[in-house]
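User: Teach me something about this protein's shape.
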Amino acid sequence: MTQRRFTFTAELWLHPDGTWHFLSLPDEDADDIEEMHGRNAHGFGSLRVEVTIGASTWRTSIFPDAKRRTYVLPVKKSVRAAEGLAHGSSATVELVVVD
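Assistant: First, the predicted structure itself:
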């Protein structure tokens, strides 16, 4: 089975605790991911993904966010530095669920 690649642009936001940076997935993509992969969720409803932003590719997890009613993608410091991203920056993301 071919894995579906999701491509979107989103704004980087800072968690209220001030330590984590996230991107929110578009509602339509989040709904499709939930429908296709939600049954494979791990702890906290997470799904494993491979993500590319610019020249950076890494594996992480997306997490459901009840408040935003979508999945959120954490963006680690090394990726933010390599891609010149800061709070409020927009990033184009390619994401594949690897479960």
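Now, about its shape. The beta strands are 5-11, 13-14, 21-24, 47-53, 56-65, 70-74, 90-97. The radius of gyration is 13 Å. If you'd like, I can walk through any region in more detail.
User: That's plenty for now, thanks!
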